Amino acid sequence: MNDNRAILKDRVVRVLLAGFAVSSILFLFLIFAFIFIEGLPLFYKAGVGKIILGMKWAPTRGHFGIFPMIVSSFMVTVGALVIGGPIGLACATYLAEYAGRKRKLFLKPALELLAGIPSVVYGFLGVIYIVPVVRTVFGGSGFSLLATSIVLGVMIMPTVISISYDSLMSVPRSYREGSFAMGATKWQTVFRVVIPAARSGILAGFILGMGRAIGETMAVIMLAGNALKIPAGPLDSLRTLTSNIALELAYASGDHRLGLFSTGIVLLVIIMILNYIANFVIKRKVIR
Amino acid sequence: MRINPRLVDRWSGWSLNVLTWFAVGILAVIVVIIFVKGIANVDLGFILKYPEDMGRHGGIFPSIIGTLLLVALSLVFATPLGIGTAIFLTEYTKETRFTTILRFGVESLAGIPSIIYGLFGFIFFVIKLDMGWSLISGALTMTIMILPTIIRTAEEAIKSVPRNFRMVSFSLGATRWETTIRVVLPSAAPGILTGIMLSVGRAVGETAAVIFTMGSSLRLPTSLMDSGRTMAVHFYILAREGISMGNAYATALVLVASILGINILAYYIMNRVISRYS
């Protein structure tokens, strides 16, 4: 009898745990449902083209154009990648191929700690230390694409490092040994054999880094100046999709608020596409 | 012209080394700046006193309590859900289409930026469920946000428990649940704890998702329906509105010190586990 009860309990637990597991899907569904329910009607009302390709954002007067913000979001993302990508890859390469055991034990957690610093702190330090440098060296107000890209570049480094590192480490030892046996130097081996073999993982790291940069909010609000136009150069101020939501959500009402949810839909779609590409790239192991 | 490959080799190794230390140097510089600029204003009074004049003077006591309540409440929801999901994925099912969908859900949640969580929490908890800007709205939003971290680390920790632990337990007649509770979870506990601590670090530092769900009231929250201001939000408001640079740095110091403390402890626990199994 006792045994039967234990088995029954096991079955009940299984159903319960399955219910827990489904919650993640449920939450994802709720997030999409509510953001789309709020944001989609405006796409009908104002027109998809006028929102996505519209140049003018004046939500209280019926203009919901977010094209400049879409372009700005991509610009800071690319800027962050240009700055954080190569340094991140260099760190990952050093950790995976050069650093000794003891050094790695210190360096790897230290670099991961960079991801723990809150984005408001990055934004604040950027305003105090990066913006004035940009202003004095290059001119302009300093609140710019350049300043934002520099800070975001640092912020995405942990993502780039950890994913590139994992993929470098998963390159079989025999690849390196084969290269050394041919008389190649360490650098030739790393640059011509190991990095190319790990390229899909490295690419995925870059894409996930882009996802982090395009979704970043607080640091961007503080650094980008939030002007409503497409920046003409690296010293221009700009407003991203994320900042648009965060700057106006607290006081927006009516169609204005719906416009912020439309902004959210565009952001969500971009993020999902980036994540999908990253997952696709990771799964497609390229070993020639 | 051909450059000597040995020379290239030496220089490239050296450059990678320098770039890595440069990146670590950024962390060091951030920590040193916050510490040096903040320490002057941090004392016991700063931690235990209420803010005066919008935070221009006085301490950050309500923000510390607000942060602790938000984190504790989020963990109350997220820990059982996360560990339960991880147990289901590792112990109770094979890889099927169902688990593929579940994993897709977890991965997607992990990739959603915090402002989207803020937007969702605002429309769903604050407005549709009429919970207002409150501790409970903030905690429920944060629960969803930290869930993927807890699930993924718990899954890794449970997977790393050797198979024969389970085999021995089954051979003694234990059911799967008895095995999970008495054998698997105790062995995986440190790894699971690491994940929980990493997600605490994330919750403590979060601003965008919290400010639109929990609000930014400076009063001490005394019920689930009260609004409150976490340290991160308080810091953001002090810094952005230029209320007080001294207190902004001091708040940043307490904020960064707690997050780094939690994360370092998490890595320490993880490393001990790794060295135990290898």
Characterize the structure shown.
The complex is a heterodimer of chains A (about 290) and B (about 280). Chain A is mostly helical and about 290 residues long. Chain A contains 12 helices and 2 strands, in the order ααββαααααααααα. Chain A has helices at about 1-45, 50, 65-100, 100-115, 120-140, 145-170, 175-180, 185-195, 200-215, 220-225, 240-250, 255-285, and strands at about 55-60, 65. In chain A, α5 (about 120-140) packs across α6 (about 145-170). The relative contact order of chain A is 0.14. Chain B has about 280 residues and is mainly alpha-helical. In chain B, about 75% of the residues lie in helices and about 0% in strands. Chain B has 11 helices and 2 strands; from the N terminus they run ααββααααααααα. Chain B has a two-stranded antiparallel sheet. In chain B, β1 (about 50) and β2 form a beta hairpin. Chain B is globular and about 65 Å long. The N and C termini of chain B lie far apart (about 50 Å).
